[in-house]
């Protein structure tokens, strides 16, 4: 009897249109935050989002890695400032939806930023202002993000105007080695 009741409850929950995790959670475990207004753009892959009536949080754009901007006496990469400017132009002051992955990176939430239904993380790669961050990509985003990067490479957009741009993860690794 208990088993039948549990099965019936599970079926009803699945048919109700409410995600399995309750309000704000996708059936696959991702958190579909309501988003908010982008109040700051730190660089080409990090923004601050302030939900209406909520506390602001920093969000690292999932699945991409933009060129580094200058920080505390450390020079940035070519196109770092341009990537930050492009993201600022796209989202600063605008209301966005955020699909949080549940991960954190250096005390930042990690998520996909959606503006009018458009995945801006993928769009930054498509415009040539970020690499697809293969090390952190998972399905179903792998082919879309890699395809966006490839499209930018072929069209020589953004950082792909350079013949051999250095990925940010190599730039950071070189900085760490230089400090030893």
TrEMBL record:
SMART domains (UniProt xref): SNc
Sorted UniProt keywords: Endonuclease, Hydrolase, Nuclease, Signal
Molecular function terms from GO: endonuclease activity; hydrolase activity; nucleic acid binding
InterPro entries hit by this protein: SNase_OB-fold_sf, Staphylococal_nuclease_OB-fold, Thermonucl_AS
Annotated TNase-like domain residues: 32-162
Residues of the signal peptide: 1-20
Protein name: Nuclease
Taxonomic classification: Bacteria, Pseudomonadati, Thermodesulfobacteriota, Desulfuromonadia, Geobacterales
